[in-house]
Design goal:
Structural class: mainly alpha
Helix content: over 70%
Largest sheet: none
Pfam families: Clathrin
Strand content: under 5%
Protein name: Clathrin heavy chain linker core motif domain-containing protein
GO cellular component, one term: clathrin-coated pit
Keywords: Coated pit, Cytoplasmic vesicle, Membrane, Repeat
Organism: Aphanomyces astaci (Crayfish plague agent)
Number of helices: 51
Length: about 775
């Protein structure tokens, strides 16, 4: 009594076991013996007692306990011990899996059977059950775990309704035994349906029907129909399910799937039943793609009850327009809305739905677009009224072009008057009329535009161009009245294109382009007017034009050339003019001009005029010209006329030789023509005694006593007396030499007398000399 020494108690335990005196009570109740010692002893006698001894060690002899129970097939005791201990490490030792390729150990199977059949059903502690289940899970024994859980959950234990166990049973079946899942789902009621269903429907397990039943059983109808739609993909079952449930979320999911499957009609019906406007953007896009607007209208009306969104209202307007429900459309846009009426109207207009677009543009007072709608609808009067309100040049153009296309020229004219006052748009308007061949109506419109308050230079200019094309008879009058308000350069191009050269000349003159005016008349004689030409030619800047004008007159109006030259005289290079006329052999045409400019004593002019006088045989005029204007090549001219058939011109040649001191040539000509007086005068003018004596001898040889006498008289100072006397004496001209001699004697006497007077001593000089001597 009172002894707690382990050895003593070990000995007592062995005695109790050996004597079989209720050893179970001792082993169970005595706390002082050593379980390892007593248990080892009991193994040889009774393994059950060894189990009790090892059990009393509270885990210290677990390895021995497992060994003894396994070796002696005490699996029921081992199962109970394991459940009671709740030690996962201990469970791990007994549930260890066989090495891959080897058969499962019979002892493990026997142990599992005892756990399932005996130990766990006897357990009352939830922790024991939980630990056991966890141990099976850790050991990765899904089939055995299912077997275990079926025993606990399905066979009426107090843990049958445990949610965690039911969850575990279903999940384990999902992972390890899929064919049992549906049975478990139908038999169990206390498991986490949505979570388990999400696992079942996953890519790994694909238990779609089971997931559907779970969702359905869990009243998760939205998820249930999702399985039908997304995984089972049975639209018929989904519709039947939605109809049976009749829940908005279910209908919404069905509708979205129907929409994705392009079943727009059914989708819209489902959306309406769901009262779900959330997918309106996709619905509208699909309806637009399929051009199914009739079904869309009801959906959009439903959506507008809960959503105020621009896209909704805009699409509803468009759908009503596409279905040609104009009354409903007008009613809708008249009521408050947030639609993009302008953009929708533009879209309808682009797609050719002008009646609907008209209603929208009327609603927002977009008169510019409204006018175009009326045009497209063929209501041109209404189009003009709308354009008047819009007062936009772009609108006026659209309406005008449309009216022109259908020959509504009165209405087109009303529009055109508002267009032509804008210079940037005038040419386009004109081009439109011209392309369609309505030039008469265009002229009428432009003529009306002349009186507009906003009339600009473009109107006057373009009308002139149009006249040049279609009514040239009015062009000159128009130009004369309005040339100051026109773009002259544009009209000039039009005149040139239309060959209206007289109009071009007028414009050049009025614009101060005198050079171009003259050039035009020169290049296009049809535009020539003599007085106008003379007026312009005096004011040109380019002097070359003067000479072109001279050529022009030579070719076209030679009789007026003198007048032209008289006008241009101050500006001309007369030598160049002479050269120009000489090349064309037209010098005789300009005699008066040459006479007028001869006062400048220019060589070219003098020579030209002298040549003309020779051709005209006007020797008197030639003599006057030579005497008055000596700036020309006199020798050359003399050579030209010295052989002239008319004597007077030969005399002029001799005269020119004399003037240039070529007395011998002059005398030769005069003697040849028997112009003895000229010869005598030439000899006198030469002052050359030899020439005078030769002439004297010439007359002697010619037996011309009178000329002999005249030569002596005229050339008195040049002829030696002895020569004269000898010639007279030899040829019997004593009487004809006598005047010369008389004159000579007189002169000689006068000279002597003068000399005597000069050399005679003065009286006072002589007296002075006498007085000095005394």
């Amino acid at each position: 009594q009172g002894n707690t020494e382990p050895a003593t108690h070990n000995a007592m335990g062995k005695i109790y076991v050996t004597l079989n005196r209720d050893p179970q009570a001792f082993l169970i109740n005595n706390p002082y013996y050593e379980p390892s010692v007593v248990g080892k002893f009991c193994e040889k006698l009774d393994p059950a007692l060894a189990f009790l001894a090892y059990q009393r060690a509270n885990g210290a002899c677990d390895d021995d306990l497992i060994r003894v129970t396994t070796e002696n097939s005490l699996f029921k005791d081992l199962a109970r011990y394991l459940v009671h201990r709740q030690d996962l490490d201990l469970w791990g030792k007994v549930l260890v899996k066989a090495v891959e390729g080897e058969a499962e150990a019979p002892s493990r199977r026997a142990l599992i059977d005892q756990v399932v059949q005996t130990a766990l059903p006897e357990a009352k502690n939830p922790d024991e059950v939980s630990t056991t289940v966890r141990a099976f899970m850790n050991a990765e024994l899904p089939n055995e775990l299912i077997e275990l859980l079926e025993r606990i959950v399905l066979q009426g234990t107090e843990f049958s309704t445990n949610k965690n166990l039911q969850n575990l049973l279903v999940l384990t079946a999902i992972k390890a035994c899929k064919e049992k899942v549906m049975d478990y789902v139908n038999r169990l009621d206390n498991f986490d349906g949505p979570d388990i269903a999400r696992i079942a429907v996953g890519e790994q397990y694909q238990l779609y029907e089971e997931a559907f039943v779970i969702y359905k059983k869990s009243k998760c109808n939205s998820d249930a129909i999702g399985v039908l739609l997304d995984h089972i993909q049975d639209m018929t079952r989904a519709y039947e399910f939605a109809d049976r449930c009749n829940e908005p979320d279910v209908w919404s999911k069905l509708a979205r799937s129907q929409l994705d499957a392009n079943n727009l009609h059914e989708a819209l019906a489902s959306f309406i039943k769901a009262g779900d406007p959330s997918s309106y953007a996709a619905v509208i896009a699909t309806a637009e793609r399929d051009n199914n607007w009739a079904d869309l209208i009801e959906y959009l009306r439903m959506a507008r009850k809960s959503v105020k969104e621009q896209h909704l209202d805009t699409s509803l307007i468009y759908a009503l327009a596409k279905c040609e429900k104009y009354a409903e459309l007008e009613e809708f846009i008249s009521a408050p809305n947030v639609a993009q009426i302008q953009n929708t109207g533009e879209r309808l207009f682009t797609e050719g739905m002008f009646n609907a677009a008209k209603l929208l543009f009327q609603n927002i007072n977009n008169n510019a677009k409204l006018a175009i709608c009326y045009v497209r609808l063929g209501k041109f009067r209404e189009a003009v009224d709308a354009a008047t309100k819009a007062n936009s040049v772009g609108t006026w153009k659209e309406v005008n072009y449309a009216c022109v296309d259908v020959n509504e020229f009165r209405l087109a004219g009303l529009c055109g008057l508002h267009i032509i006052v804008h210079p940037d748009h005038l040419e386009e308007l004109i081009l439109n009329y011209e392309r369609r061949g309505h030039w008469a109506e265009l002229l009428k419109l432009m003529e009306q535009g002349l009186g507009l308050e906003g009339a600009h230079a473009g109107i006057f200019t373009e009308l002139a161009i149009l006249y040049s094309k279609y009514n040239p008879t009015k062009l000159m009058e128009h130009i004369k009245i309005f040339h100051s308000r026109m773009n002259v350069s544009k009209i000039l191009r039009a005149c040139e294109k239309g060959l209206h050269w007289d109009h071009a000349v007028y414009l050049y003159k009025e614009d101060g382009q005198f050079d171009n005016a003259v050039r035009t008349m020169v290049d296009h004689p049809v535009a020539f007017a003599h007085d106008l030409f003379l007026d312009c030619i005096q004011r040109v800047r380019n002097q070359e034009i003067h000479y072109k004008a001279i050529n022009f007159y030579l070719e076209q109006h030679p009789l007026e050339l003198t007048r032209l030259l008289q006008v241009l005289t101050p500006n001309l290079d007369h030598a160049r003019v002479v050269h120009q006329l000489r090349k064309s052999d037209n010098l005789p045409l300009v005699v008066e001009y040459l006479k007028d400019v001869q006062k400048e004593n220019l060589s070219a002019v003098n020579e030209a005029l002298n040549e003309i006088l020779v051709e005209d045989e006007d020797y008197a005029g030639l003599r006057d010209s030579i005497d008055s204007y000596d700036n020309f090549d006199q020798i050359s001219f003399a050579q030209k006329v010295e052989k002239h058939e008319l004597l007077e011109f030969r005399r002029i040649a001799a005269y020119l030789y004399k003037k240039n001191k070529r007395y011998g040539q002059s005398l030769k000509l005069s003697k040849a023509d028997k112009m003895y007086k000229d010869a005598i005068d030439t000899a006198f003018d030469s002052g050359d005694a030899e020439l005078a004596e030769d002439l004297l001898r010439f007359f002697v040889a010619a037996h011309d006593k009178e000329c002999f006498c005249a030569t002596l008289f005229t050339c008195y100072k040049l002829i030696k007396p002895d020569v004269a006397m000898e010639l007279a004496w030899r040829n019997g001209y004593v009487d004809f030499v006598m005047p010369y001699l008389i004159q000579y004697v007189k002169n000689l006497n006068d000279k002597i007398k003068v000399l005597d007077e000069r050399t005679k001593p003065k009286e006072h000089d002589g007296q002075h000399h006498i007085d000095g001597g005394i």
